[in-house]
Amino acid sequence: MNDHEKYLLKLYITGHTPRSERAIKNLRRICEEDLSGHYEMRVIDILEQPQLAEDEKILATPTLIKALPPPLRRIIGDLSDSEKVLLGLDLLVQSHPSLQGK
Question: Which domains does the chain show, CATH number per domain?
Fold first, then answer.
């Protein structure tokens, strides 16, 4: 990741449920540990903004979408398994050079 590259992460939740709160907490932890400030995180409550969820074709929550940089990636769940989240978002390659190109 170069110094100017930022990740745009959108987390879609349904209300302030324990599962939603856990997903927000897990995403914040992952961002702080693995993206060191090179990210913008948006939390979107589909109860408050249903049109955004419809536009993104959100079928389940919590859903995390990595909008930038391409390619777009999405993960469904509370994001408790950091390694799966990093792999799913193509972020693990950034912190583990031995995995690049595989």
Answer: 7-92 (3.40.30.10)
pLDDT tens readout for residues 33-67: 988 888 999 999 999 999 999 999 999 999 999 99
What is the pTM assigned to this prediction? Answer: 0.84
**Dihedral sign (CA 36, 37, 39, 43):** positive
- In degrees, rounded to 5, the angle at the alpha carbon of residue 101 between the alpha carbons of residues 99 and 102 is 65
Question: Are 89 and 73 within 8 A, CB to CB?
Answer: yes
Task: Please tell me whether residue 54 adopts helix, strand or coil conformation.
Answer: helix
How many of the other CB atoms lie within 10 Å of CB of 32? 11
* 6 phi and psi angles, rounded to 5 deg: -120, 145
